[in-house]
Design brief:
The protein is mostly helical and 149 residues long. The chain is built from 6 helices and no strands. Helix 2 packs antiparallel against helix 3, helix 2 packs antiparallel against helix 6 and helix 3 runs antiparallel to helix 5.
Length: 149
């Protein structure tokens, strides 16, 4: 008898299934929003230091860039997890713009990593807001989109 069959025999359980990779409730676009807010914040800080060349400013610039890169990557990962693990074909039928929305959001997050442009960062946040709206609509809920700043 294998270990798995022994455990199954000792602890029988009813078969279950889920429409996503994890139990419902573990996905939330809020984590993408929080990371995206950090991208906007770092972009603003970098713009404020434009032209400064003293060592403290250069140090701050390098730190802000590192944070902006990291947070853009986190936001992109979170958006792609929603796309690949949460959203299903039925959602795409309900929201045919979803594929393009996710693709454009991921591209804008890449642009946020390669540019210091507040317009790009705000467009990215607008896309994340739309993902938020659609995500919660698929759950039949109207959850307000909050930002910290």
């Amino acid at each position: 008898m294998t270990f798995t069959s022994l455990v199954t025999k000792l602890f029988p359980a009813e078969a279950v299934s889920a429409h996503c990779d994890g139990p419902c409730g573990v996905y939330d676009p809020a984590s993408a929003r929080i990371a995206a807010e950090a991208v906007i914040s770092m972009t603003k800080k970098l713009i404020a230091l434009d032209g400064k060349t003293d060592l403290n400013s250069v140090n701050s610039i390098s730190r802000y860039i590192a944070i902006k890169e990291e947070q853009a990557h986190i936001a992109k990962t979170e958006v792609l997890i929603l796309w690949t693990d949460y959203f299903k074909p039925v959602h795409l039928e309900q929201y045919p713009e979803l594929h393009t929305l996710i693709w454009e959001t991921a591209k804008l997050l890449s642009d946020c990593k390669t540019h210091i442009d507040l317009d790009i960062a705000h467009r990215m946040m607008d896309k994340i807001k739309e993902i938020h709206r659609i995500f919660w609509a698929t759950k039949g809920r109207d959850i307000t989109f909050y930002v910290a700043s």
